[in-house]
Structures are given as C-alpha cells and as structure tokens.
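User: For my dataset I need records formatted as: sequence, then structure tokens, nothing else. Please produce one.
Assistant:
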Amino acid sequence: MVRLENAQSLVGIALTLLVCWAMSEDRKRFPWRLALGALVVQVGLILLLFGLPAARGVVAGISAAVDGLGAATAQGTQFVFGYLGGGEQPYVQTAGQAPFVFAFQVLPLILVISALSALLWHWGILKLIIRGFGLVFEKAMGMGGASATATAANIFVGMIETPIIIRAYLDKLTRSELFLMMVVGLATVAGSTMVAYATILRDVLPNAAAHVLVASVVSAPAGVLLARLMVPEKKGEGGVNVDYTSLLKYESSIDAISKGVADGLMVVLNISAILIVFVALVAIGNALLGLAPDVAGAPLSIERILGVLFAPLAWTLGIDGAESGKAGYLLGVKLMLTEFIAFIQLGAIPAGEMTERTRMILTYALCGFANVGSVGITVTGLGVLMPERRAEISSLVWKALVAGFLATCMTAAVVGAMPRELFGIL
C-alpha cells in the first residue's frame, strides 16, 4: 500500500539529484540514461531480495550466516578473553546474563571476516562475485570495465583494497573515473564491517544482516550516479576495459588467512582508537556547551545541534517528523564522527523509542564510509598508489565526501519510497 510517507521519500531522491547537479562541473548535461539505470538497479535489487517469495530464504540464510559467524567468533573470543568475551562468569550476574563488552564481542568479528574474505579471494570465489556485479554495473549503467570492477569491489573489500585490485589501470583512469572510485568507496562499506553493524542491530531490527548487506550493494549504483552527475565523463574519454586479473594475490590459503588477520587487526585498532577519541571529544564538547545558557529549556549539546541541522534531511528520507530530530542527529554523527558510532547509538535506542521503519531507513542512510575521518584515509591511501595525482585527489576528496554521504541518503530515500509491507513492516 502506497502512503504519503512514500511520496515524502521521493522528495529526498529529487533533492539529492538537484544538489549534486548544482555542484556539477558541467550543468549543461544531465545523465538521464544513467539515472534511470541506477534507479532500476537499486529498485530491482531491493525487490529481488525482499519482494520475491523465493528470496526470503536468501534473507533468512544471510541472517543465519551472520549468527553462525558470530557464534563461531564467540568461541574463539571466549577462549582468549574468557568471561569478558561472553564466557562463564566468575561471579553472579544480577542481570542474569554475561555483560556485553563491545571490544570483545563485536570487534573480533572483523578479524574473522577479514581473514575469511582474504581466503575467499585466494580461492577465486570473491573474484567471481565481484566480476558478476561488475558486469551488471557495466551493462546496466554503461560503465567502463575498470570503473565497473572498482564499483563492485568496493561493496565487498572496501575503499582501500579496491584501488589495489585495479592498480594496473589506475594510470588510465580519467578524472571522472577517479572521482567515481572515490565516491563509491565512501558510499559503501567493507564486508568485514558489514557483519559488525548487523551484530550491533540484531536485537533491535529484524533481518538486520540482510538490510546491511543490501544497503552497501544498493548504494553503489547511487554513488555511480551522483559521481557522474558531479564530475561528468567527457565525450570520447573513459571506458577502460580490464581482464579481471589483479595485483592482490596470496601465496597460499595460510598466507591469505595470515594477511587477512593482519589487515583486520589494523582495522580493529583504527576503529578502537577512533571510538575512544571521538567519544571523548563529544563528551568534552558537551561539557563546554553545557556552560552556555539553556536553550528552549534544556542545555545545549552536540546531539541537539546535529539533530536540528540534519532533521530536515531526515524528513526527506521518509522519516516521520516526530522522529526526524533523533534521526537527524544520527546522520550528523555518521558524517562528523563515523558510521560505527552512529550504528552503536542506533542499536542502543530501545525498540519502543523508535519505529521499525525509521530504524530500517536509518540503517541504509548510515551504511557508508562517508565521514570526515575518511577524507584523510582516502587521500593517504590513493596518494600512495597514485603519487603523481595526489593534488588532483586532494582537490576532489571533499566533493567526493558530499556525494558519498548523499548516495547513502538517496538509497535510504529509495527504500522509504517503497511500501513498508515489502519489508514485513505493518
């Protein structure tokens, strides 16, 4: 059943396209074919997983796989950390269950998924999946092979590993293709963090794992569209084809697991450090704002300020006005801090204090690496691989941040524009 809330989300889609067109380097052209292709791919993928009866088994399988990975990881975590990892407690728990320690019960998942991803890459399974998605993007949206492969790779391996996969073609990328790779990298998340996000939301959002996976996949075509809209490809340029080989190689399965764990450990350390620092900075900021006079009968805080600034954007995604302030705050946290902190705070909101539909839409809006901290990571990572284009990368990165952030918002708006019954929400 189509409702007013669905039309409300159409405003978000139109507004996103309008903002990116206003920031375009060539406003005389609008990529109508690409826009139609991107929306068709987005809607098609969502309907495929949530609309077809046969696909419901896939959704259930994704959730079961995430639960299985979590259970397997818990065994290893408990072996090393004992009761801190959720094992048998040395004392009586008044709450009736083991305490939840984020560092020991979420972050270890990243290590396991990172190692598993490297192993699947070495065995060729992940390569086939990426190639399949790459061909879909290439045909549906008229992309060159290198750009299509980079877009598909970003969905599963992240924005740092993707340039390594197509490293042999980096010097052939046009300005538009380079920008596209940056935007899609910021609009999606790596496979290792997908499972962590799903674990955080598991108790407050049904089918959380499926929503997180679909969010990263569906945001890729949105990123392509907005990137092409802001930095259009010049006629006669681009379209580099690839032979689907890669410089990302492992010597053996053991080598893949070892290097995957090492890479995952770096991600865990970075996430841990960022969470500690940013949470502390927010506390400091709130303490300073608390010195100011109350506004509207309550003390100022970073949460209130972000909520006011981003509430209108949250409304255009299809979120009810009564919840737009809280949703806007989470959007601001994602952009200014990290999506990890935003997901943690979304997962901490009790089920009765936020509707399932709002929580679902926010899951899509938050599921991307587009935050201020990623700007430095993007410049550093690509600058090492493309030192001769470092100045060009630096000049594009802030525009890429805007496009990447809006791409996830566009995806959320597309989800919001679809009937809630499609997702099992009454």
